[in-house]
Write a sequence for this structure.
């Protein structure tokens, strides 16, 4: 195993250990309530980056996958009483299938046309949910989550730990994609699709795979959401803010590596949560816009690229 | 001809009502050095795109080693052994020089270590010293060499070099020509598309000339130089 992989696995073990231990040492559940949102965005940004960052296909439909995960999980839990891990797994599988479907329909087009087509997915799914009474329609549906298991002191802590496990799985998947032949192929697609295809890369198949993996992660990110809020309704589940954050966070952190979306999500989601508590929840979107403009103007490669260049200069 | 490796039969390509190519009949022998010339817009790149699978011909067929590949996707044609470099170099940015070669190697079979194969090919084109550098840092000549190396790394049977010498100095042209000659010596058929006439004349065993999508002349360097149709295309009436 390479040194970086050993460090990565060690980091994962430490993060997971903290995720299970912190709920017993930090007494205020509010921190876990807020931490859940930050981890949810780490997962969303990581999932988005598999297609948008590695392959360069800008997906505006992240909220569609997230919302699909929210509703499938809520439906399976309230109707069949499925345990939460199975709800998450089902959401991931459904997100992968949805990703394949979206990819098959849209991947032959590129650039702005692809982006618009993916935006359409959100509208279509939201409209469908609006019109299904079994999902609560426009009024939404109440979801009374499962009782936390003995290893967790309360519902906020339980949701936090579950979201942490999903985020860790998402980041691990993104890193695997990045360092494997899949990531190399996707980066080749991003650089020049024609050159990649003429080098033997099955570009369409790779992009479909990226769509499926990205969709699975985005939908899995939405699966525990009903238990976090105890209520789901279409406008929040398919919110434009989710789609916007999904793009902004990797762009701010850097899209070339799995580190970028994690950094971007940790930074932006934390700032948003602090702003929500101290100033106004409505200022969230303003922060996203301002930070995004600043990064596009002054650090288009994102935080990870900025650190990388600094390190490079220091070495030389 | 029994040693024909690539054969185009009545190939045509239209963009709307505009006929960009054809009908074209063209054969390439195994190990041959074929030059393709013609003014801008004469259909040379369209021809390559039809051979490599970037475009599907509207009419006619492309055969490779006796097999009709007209409807096969570009990446499968590359794996069969049809490789190309691009007119404007298209490095895989964000990757090192070595990684640029590992991309095609991920999708083809080579004996031994893939990284070793990549290093060997990079050495053969004179890029050993740049293996760990990002492709964005390469000079124009190095980019051309990288294009060729990437095309060669999967052991192609046919290499199409699309204006691989454009924008290079005389010395640099000699370097690229030496690479192509060495490759041809190893048995690879090379199609050279080029505007630099002395390079094409020096390199090619046979040259074909295109104008407005049609093949108007074929012959050796001296036959092409003296062909009145070719002279008319390049010098007017």
């Amino acid at each position: 195993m390479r040194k970086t992989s050993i460090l990565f696995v060690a980091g994962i073990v430490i993060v997971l250990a903290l995720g299970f231990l912190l709920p017993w040492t930090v007494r205020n559940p509010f921190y876990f309530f807020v931490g859940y949102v930050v981890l949810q965005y780490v997962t969303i940004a990581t999932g988005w980056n598999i297609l948008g960052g590695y392959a360069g296909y800008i997906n505006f439909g992240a909220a569609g996958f997230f919302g699909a995960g929210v509703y499938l999980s809520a439906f399976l839990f309230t109707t069949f009483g499925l345990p939460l891990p199975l709800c998450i797994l089902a959401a991931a599988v459904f997100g992968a299938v949805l990703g394949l479907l979206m990819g098959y329909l849209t991947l032959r087009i590129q650039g702005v046309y692809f982006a618009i087509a993916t935006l359409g997915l959100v509208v279509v799914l939201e409209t469908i949910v609006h019109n299904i009474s079994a999902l609560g329609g426009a009024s939404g549906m109440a979801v009374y989550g499962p009782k936390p298991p003995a290893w967790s002191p309360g519902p906020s802590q339980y949701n936090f730990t579950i979201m942490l496990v999903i985020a860790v799985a998402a980041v691990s998947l993104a890193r695997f994609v990045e360092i494997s032949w899949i990531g190399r192929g996707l980066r080749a697609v991003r650089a020049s699709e024609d050159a990649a295809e003429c080098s033997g890369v099955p570009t369409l198949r790779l992009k479909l795979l990226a769509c499926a993996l990205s969709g699975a992660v985005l939908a899995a990110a939405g699966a525990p959401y009903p238990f976090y809020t105890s209520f789901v309704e279409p406008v929040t589940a398919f919110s434009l803010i989710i789609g916007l954050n999904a793009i902004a966070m990797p762009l701010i952190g850097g899209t070339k590596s799995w580190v970028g979306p994690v950094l971007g999500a940790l930074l932006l989601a934390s700032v948003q949560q602090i702003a929500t508590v101290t100033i106004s929840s409505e200022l969230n979107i303003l922060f996203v816009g301002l930070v995004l403009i600043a990064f596009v103007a002054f650090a288009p490669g994102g935080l990870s690229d900025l650190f990388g260049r600094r390190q490079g200069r220091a070495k030389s | 001809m029994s040693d024909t490796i690539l054969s185009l039969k009545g190939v045509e390509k239209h963009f709307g009502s505009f006929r960009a190519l054809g009908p074209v009949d063209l054969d390439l022998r195994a190990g041959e050095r074929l030059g393709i010339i013609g003014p801008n817009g004469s259909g040379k790149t369209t021809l390559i795109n039809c051979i490599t699978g970037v475009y599907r011909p509207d009419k006619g067929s492309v055969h490779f080693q006796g097999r009709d590949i007209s409807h096969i996707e570009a990446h499968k044609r590359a794996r069969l052994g049809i490789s190309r470099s691009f007119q404007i170099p298209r490095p895989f940015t964000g990757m090192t020089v070595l990684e640029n070669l590992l991309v095609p190697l991920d999708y083809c079979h080579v004996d031994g270590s893939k990284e070793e194969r990549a290093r060997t090919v990079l050495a053969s084109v004179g890029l050993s010293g740049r293996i760990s550098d990002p492709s964005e840092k390469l000079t124009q000549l190095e980019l051309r060499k990288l294009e060729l190396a990437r095309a060669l790394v999967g052991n192609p049977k046919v290499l199409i070099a699309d204006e691989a010498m454009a924008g290079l100095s005389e010395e640099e042209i000699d370097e690229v020509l030496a690479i192509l000659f060495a490759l041809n010596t190893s048995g690879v058929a090379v199609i050279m598309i080029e505007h630099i006439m002395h390079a094409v004349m020096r390199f090619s065993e046979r040259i074909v000339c295109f104008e407005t999508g049609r093949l108007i002349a074929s012959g050796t360097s001296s036959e092409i130089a003296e062909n009145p149709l070719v002279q008319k295309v390049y010098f007017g009436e």
